Structures are given as structure tokens and as C-alpha cells.
Amino acid sequence: MTTPNGLDPTLFIVFGAGGDLTWRKLVPALYNLHLDRQLPETFALIGVDRSSQSDEAFRGHLREGVDRFSRRGKTDDASWTAFAEKISILNADFTAPEMSASLRKRLDQVDKSWGGQANRVFYLAIPPTLIEKAAARLKDLGLCQDCSRDRLVVEKPFGRDLQSARALDRTLTALFSESQIFRIDHYLGKETVQNLLAFRFANALFEPIWDRRYIDQVQITVAETVGVGHRAGYYDHAGALRDMVQNHLLQILCLIAMEAPVSFDADEIRNKKIDVLRAIHPIRAEKVHHYAVRGQYGEGRMDGVKTVPGYRQEVGVRPESGTETFVALRLFVDNWRWQGVPFYLRTGKRLAQKVSQVSILFRPVPHQSFPASAVENWQPNRLIIRIQPEEGITLRIQAKQPGTRMLLAPVDMQFCYREAFRKTPPEAYETLLLDVMRGDATLFMRADQVEKAWEVISPVLKSWEETPAGDFPDYVSGSWGPESADALLTQDGRSWFDPVLTEREGEEGQK
Ligand code: BG6
């Protein structure tokens, strides 16, 4: 009973439907898929939540979220009504045994009215501590047994260290087959992150110079202006290393450093990525301070205007909290391609600008033919992959300045998604949810990748747990992080690049 857009009828069941993720991300993404006619023709969303609200109230709440967070802005009545008809709520505690009968009954009813068994996506938008319980409940109920039709989507964080991630994986893989488990890292759904594969492997130009002979260093910056917001309950026990580095930043590193895949097969790409994680030079416990620094934001002014509280003053944060809100790492990939090339990673909250970029600095030309007077402002080539907010690629090259004299200056060649394709790229969750419904796991994390990523950061986690930071807060909100982050690069005679902003990004940053 496959429908015309190629997707089988699908029942999308969200556990934790009353939560923030459903409201801000999942439902706006599903609604945009609906507008783009990408949802299966036969589709229903069932939200499982403890609250006792009516379908009407639930739909109203979700509409508010779509109005606020959809990339297309406010909903119109006709489109929303058509979408809302597909939504219902099941008021139940998914950990309680009573839930089973009512959920099974609801699913059977839908199957019956659709005239056959639909695909089922069980989305666990719930706190990490409840994942094992929810998964076991699904299994008990016999609700997720068909390996080809039933899928389980798990949000990050997958565990809080290597041991707990392994334990979680053992539980999940004992209950479900690996092909049924979709571990989401939403960065992998971002258009520019996916474009890294196209950029590197669909163009002949870059691959021959993509190695230690031509590349001097790689910097990955994922900077946020927001603070911890209302997520202190989770974040204060996680910190930036677990929240951002273990997943998003290491995944970007993998895409930059991986070897060319033989095919676009999900496992082939994931195998190439895990090779990178395996090659990351292990950080020795006694050397952690040479490779990793942490920071925590204090009070400050964002854009020099709005005063914001320090992390320790945020609602729900412990007043003496030692949780890091900033991390910088200096990593090396021990293989033929990358030997000796540093990969500098940094991420933090309450930084000066919301911007995610990968900056690849090439080595200087081997011989300078121009007279010194021509090259006063010399800069080696730099490739900047702009992940957000304005998705695109900038290539910084040297050019002759117009005039009668030979004077060189750096100029930027720009590729901007919005201008080149004249459309707004889909949100990461749109891509990922559609992939789950299609059963394509290419952009999802495999268990061994998750574990390897934990292994990479384990020595840092351990060292920081054993030795609390004595100098927190150590950076002012609205800055680029603590001074120790600069020192991390100074030891190599290098420094962080200022992000390269398009005019639009520059203006947005001022708001
Ligand atoms: C999430 C983290 O995974 O990514 C958040 O838990 C962070 O702390 C968010 O704010 C950043 O995502 P994006 O898409 O806004 O860069």
C-alpha cells in the first residue's frame, strides 16, 4: 500500500509529546514536510503525554509552536486544518503498564481504518534517563517487532560517558535490531553539513590538495549567543563537552577528515567516518591541559547592549556550578593524510556571535615571486564552510588590486545557498524525519560511532571531573570565550580566526 510519493503509510508516535522538542522542532518540521507534500499520503501523528488534554487543546498548543518556530512563519488556516486532522493525543504515562493496552488499541484501530499494517516510527523525545524504560515497554508490548516497518528514534545524549553509552546500546540492541534504531544528531541534517560530502567528493578540484601537504590547520567553531535558557536541569549535569563536542563537532570533523567513500551507502559512509574517530590521537590524562580547555560564562553584555546574567545566576543552575559552557580542543588525526595537522574545535554559549563555520587554512605558496611591496597584506588561502546562519562557502584568495601597480590583496569568492538556489533550505529535522520515514540511516549515528566519540573525549571528561575548575566564571558574556582558549593555540604559534561573516550575517549579529 505504498502511496504516490513513494512512502508507505506511516504512524508517527511521539513519546514526550508535551515537551519542548516536539513543540519547537518536530512538529514544525513535520508541518513543513506536509506543506512540501513530502509526508506519506497516509500519515498520522499520535502524541503520547501524561497530561490530560483534548485533541483540540493539543493541536492548539502545537500550532502555537509552528507559528513561532517554523521557517515559513505563521500557519494559514486551511493548511493547518488539513495537517491538524492527522494529529491526536493519547493521555498516558508511557512508563506505566496501563499505557500498553490503550496504545496498542489505538494503533490497531488506525491499521484497520487504513486497511493494512502501517510503518511505525516511535520517537523518544524524552529525558535520557527514561529511554531504556520506554524502549523496554515497546518491546514488551510487541509494538516494535517488524524490523522492516518499525523504527525507533533516539535523541542525544546517548549516555553520559563511554560506560553508560555502552550500557544503553546493549539494552537497545538486545531489544531491537540495529537497522531499526535511528540515533539523531541534528547537525548531520543541516544542509551545509551534508553539502560537505558533495563539496569534497563531487568536485575534482579539492581532493588532491585535501591533506597535510597543502593544509596547515582546520578550525571548527560552533558559537551560540544564547545562554542555558530553561534547560538547566539537563545542561548543568551535561556541560558543553557532552552537549556539543561529543556529537556535533566531532561529526563535522569526521566529514572534513574522512576518506572518499566507495558508494553512498549508509554503512560505507559511517565506516569512513569511524575511521577518523579511530585515528584521533588519544589524549593522555597528564596532558589534558595541552589539548583541552573549558570555560564558563559570567555576566556581560550581548552586542554591547543587553546585559545578561552569568551562568551561575541562571534559573536552575547550582550557584557554585562547575559546569563548562565553553570548550576548545586541539586534536590530531594520526593517519597518512592528516599527520601533524591540528584540528582546533571550539564551542560555547553566550559568545559574541551565533555562527558555525569550518575554516581550512592552506599553506603559503612555496615561493614568493612578488616583491615584498606587492604583498604587504598577504594571507594564505582559506576555505570557509559556513554552516549557519547564512549557509554557504567562501574561498579567500589573493588578487591583484586594480591600479597601475602590482599590489595584492585578499578577496572572497562566495557561494551562498540562498542566492544560488533561490530557496530556503529545509531545517535539519525536516531532512532527518523524512529519512527516518524512508528508512535511510546515512545521516544517523551508529552505535560504534557514538562509543568512539565518547572514547575520544573520555580522558578530558575524567580529568575535568577530578579537578574542578578554580577560576569559573572565566569569560564575559558577549566575548569569544576564555583567554585559555587563545593560549591553547599560542603553543602552536597560531590563533583563532575571526569568523568570516557575510553582510547579512554581520547585520543580524548587530540585532
Ligand atoms: C543541541 C544542544 O544539540 O544543539 C543545545 O543540546 C544547542 O545546547 C543546540 O543549543 C544548537 O543547535 P543549533 O542547530 O541551534 O546550532
Give the topology:
Blueprint: E1 10-15, H1 20-35, E2 43-49, H2 55-69, H3 77-84, E3 87-91, H4 97-114, E4 119-124, H5 131-140, E5 150-155, H6 162-175, E6 181-184, H7 191-201, E7 215-223, H8 232-235, H9 240-257, H10 266-279, H11 288-291, E8 292-295, E9 297-302, E10 306-308, E11 326-332, E12 342-348, E13 355-362, E14 382-388, E15 392-400, E16 408-416, H12 417-421, H13 428-438, H14 447-466, E17 475-477, H15 483-490, H16 503-510
Parallel strand pairs: 1-2, 1-4, 2-3, 4-5, 5-6, 7-12, 9-17
Antiparallel strand pairs: 7-13, 8-11, 9-10, 11-12, 13-14, 14-15, 15-16
This protein binds 6-O-phosphono-beta-D-glucopyranose.
Q: Can you describe what's shown?
A:
There is one protein chain. The chain has helices spanning 20-35, 55-69, 77-84, 97-114, 131-140, 162-175, 191-201, 232-235, 240-257, 266-279, 288-291, 417-421, 428-438, 447-466, 483-490, 503-510; strands at residues 10-15, 43-49, 87-91, 119-124, 150-155, 181-184, 215-223, 292-295, 297-302, 306-308, 326-332, 342-348, 355-362, 382-388, 392-400, 408-416, 475-477. The protein has two domains: 10-155, Rossmann fold; 188-510, Dihydrodipicolinate Reductase, domain 2, CATH 3.30.360. It has 16 helices and 17 strands. The protein has 511 residues and is an alpha/beta fold. The longest helix is centred in the C-terminal third of the chain and has 20 residues, at 447-466. It has an eight-stranded mixed β-sheet with strand order 8-11-12-7-13-14-15-16, with helices on both faces. A six-stranded parallel β-sheet has the order 3-2-1-4-5-6, sandwiched between helices. The termini are far apart. Helix 1 (20-35) crosses helix 2 (55-69), helix 5 runs parallel beside helix 6 and helix 6 packs antiparallel against helix 14. Bound molecules: 6-O-phosphono-beta-D-glucopyranose (BG6). 6-O-phosphono-beta-D-glucopyranose binds at residues 224, 243.
